[in-house]
Design a protein that fits this description.
19 helices, 8-stranded antiparallel sheet, Vanillyl-alcohol Oxidase, Chain A, domain 3
């Protein structure tokens, strides 16, 4: 990047908000030698717009960045350009308790937002596995969710309106405080999950939920994986939990060894949460005791123990990736196919003597497959991952490797949605961002726009 551009950024942002220090640049990257040329910290929407407008004029890449905790899921490593850190955008502009809405800036963390909302008896029910340090902007970029997606949905379900800086630097508003605010295209939710490639979200109007009267978490340990899958299916169908997670023995053992022990034993366990009116939650817990008390080890968690249970669930990827690392595959399936996929995946992987662990957002049909192989050994397990992709496709689902930049697998994932999708995505991106300035390293768009360039960038 030319020095005159960095100087111009410093002229209107202030030198203290334009950083070239390699240590700071590394914090706004996916590591290695793939660093931005500069990191900037705008303080308001006008400064964001000016940065983007200037970058567009110069043809310089801009990558919006919050806490960076979820970036590895949707972005490729990228060298150069401007990392646009939005963490100075920290205002709660309006908190309307009566209408259960809030108008906020997107640099705020989920923890900060819910600390404010809960004082009014409301909350934003997002629980990405990366935790409450995630910024709202990052959650919108990723359309983030977590175990409670089963009852509460994803980030897009809480967006009533947005303030966006377009790829050419204009400030645009979508939606409004009313639930019914779309007469044509739903421009608000369209941005969720686009990884900042179509616009920089600087503010959001959020729809909030009342805090439940009571929430209870339980852990059930089963002697056989098949029994855990059967119980998970029935719990979702019969009792309506807000979260329903499955972890196999390999994950349970790894958590035990890392200081996050679970209170039950078995070949697999379920983490279950119920929330709502006290009478209803008490009935749900009673039904679990009646149906599974004699078939599984059952622990009903107190408030502190519940926090420890869900923290253990959040730590699953970290403990599996410790040491030499691991390869993370993710299957998205129809709910009714989840148990069968888990059993068949386990059989397939065991027959190949793979060191593997399985975790599932069972109620959502989302299964994580952890292969205990260094990412550097990806070639050795690519065939078996391809078979898992076939297994998921046969069940009406999709399978993708999340922490390896395998653009061949991404291509297959995109094309599975129909041959017309790639040209459509290309036209949308080129119409909104003809110079390809915003987030050119989005995994899907990198392939869609220029597969050869994306492969080279991925290194």
């Amino acid at each position: 990047m030319e020095a005159k551009l960095i100087k111009e950024l410093a002229n209107f942002l202030g030198q203290e908000h334009v950083i070239e220090d390699p240590a700071v640049r590394r914090q706004a990257s996916l590591g290695g030698d793939y660093l931005p040329d500069v990191v900037v910290y705008p303080g308001n929407n006008e400064e964001v717009a000016r940065v983007v407008r200037l970058a567009n004029e110069e043809g310089v890449a801009v990558i919006p960045w919050g806490a960076g905790l979820q970036a590895w899921r949707g972005l490729l490593p990228y060298r150069g350009g401007i990392a646009l850190r939005l963490t100075r955008l920290q205002k709660i502009i309006e908190f309307d308790q009566d209408n259960q809405t809030a108008w906020v800036e997107t640099g705020l963390s989920l923890a900060s937002l819910n600390e404010a909302f809960q004082k009014g008896g409301l909350f934003l029910p997002l629980d990405p596995l990366e935790g409450e340090a995630c910024t709202l902007g990052g959650c919108i970029a990723a359309n983030a969710s977590g175990p409670r997606k089963l009852a509460y949905g994803t980030t897009k379900d809480y967006l009533l309106g947005l303030e966006i800086v377009s790829p050419t630097g204009e400030i645009v508003h979508t939606g409004g405080k009313t639930v019914k605010n779309v007469q044509d295209y739903d421009n608000t939710r369209f941005l969720a999950g686009s990884w900042g490639s179509l616009g920089v979200v600087t503010k959001a109007i959020l729809k909030l939920k009342p805090l439940p009267e009571k929430e209870v978490s339980l852990c059930l340990g089963f002697p056989r994986l098949e029994e855990a899958c059967e119980a998970a299916f029935n719990l979702r169908q019969d009792l309506g939990p807000v979260a329903l997670e499955l972890m196999d023995a390999a994950i349970m053992e790894a958590l035990q060894g890392s200081g996050h022990p679970l209170p039950v034993r078995g070949e697999a366990c379920l983490l279950v949460a119920f929330a709502g009116f006290t009478e209803a939650v008490d009935w749900q817990v009673g039904e679990v005791r009646t149906k599974y008390g004699a078939r599984a080890e059952l622990a009903v968690a107190g408030e502190d123990d519940a926090a420890a249970l869900w923290e253990a669930r959040r730590q699953a990827w970290r403990v599996m990736a410790g040491g030499e690392g691991a390869i993370l595959g993710s299957a998205s399936l129809p709910f009714t196919a989840t148990g069968k996929f888990i059993r068949e995946a386990r059989s397939l992987l065991d027959s190949g003597q793979q060191k593997v662990a399985l975790v599932a957002h069972f109620g959502n049909g989302h299964v994580h497959v952890f292969l205990k192989h260094s990412p550097a050994d990806y070639g050795a397990v690519r065939e078996v991952l391809g078979r898992l992709q076939d297994l998921a496709a046969g069940a009406g689902g999709l399978f993708l490797v999340e922490n390896i930049n395998d653009l061949t697998m991404v291509r297959r994932w995109v094309e599975a949605r129909g041959p017309a999708l790639i040209p459509l995505l290309r036209r949308i991106k080129e119409a909104l961002d003809p110079r390809r300035v915003l987030t050119p390293n989005s995994k899907v768009l990198a392939y869609v726009l220029d597969a050869a360039e994306a492969t080279e960038t991925a290194g």
